Amino acid sequence: MTRVSLEKYHDIVVRLKELKTTIVTDSVKGSSDEYPYTSHSITLHGVRNDEKTREEVKTYLNKEKVP
């Protein structure tokens, strides 16, 4: 491997780690399932899993395998 390819490899590994660990937060309104049906906020946390992110991960994984 050349120096340039090693630098690119490091960038690819770092970007993959970012994509796989970026936490997305959202909140929704919900209510109790029993009387009194009081409304409350629910916060959701997770990893982004949209088509664009999956394609980017797939692209970086393919680049990572190329020497």
What does it look like?
The protein has one domain. The chain is built from 2 helices and 2 strands, in the order H-E-E-H. It has helices at about 5-20, 50-65, and strands at about 25-30, 40-45. A two-stranded antiparallel ribbon has the order 1-2. The protein starts with a helix and ends with a helix. About 0% of the residues are buried. The mean pLDDT is about 80.
Any chance you could write out the topology, listing elements then pairs?
Blueprint: H1 3-21, E1 23-31, E2 39-47, H2 51-65
Antiparallel strand pairs: 1-2
Helix pairs in contact: 1-2
- Provide the gyration radius in Å: 20 Å
Q: Please work out how many helical segments DSSP would assign.
A: 2
Based on Cα principal axes, name the global outline.
rod-shaped
Overall pLDDT? 82
What is the straight-line distance between the termini? 7 Å
* Order of strands in the sheet with most strands: 1-2
Report the order of strands and helices: HEEH
* Residue fraction in strands: 25-35%
Number of domains: 1
- Give the beta-strand count: 2
Q: Pairing-aware structural class of the strands and helices? A: alpha+beta
Percent helix range: 40-55%
Low-confidence stretches: none
Main beta-sheet annotation: 2 strands, antiparallel
Pick out its properties.
two-stranded antiparallel ribbon, 67 residues, 51% helix, single chain, 27% strand, rod-shaped
Short overview:
By secondary structure, this protein is α+β, with helices and mostly antiparallel strands. It contains two helices and two strands; from the N terminus they run αββα. The chain is rod-shaped, with a radius of gyration of 20 Å.
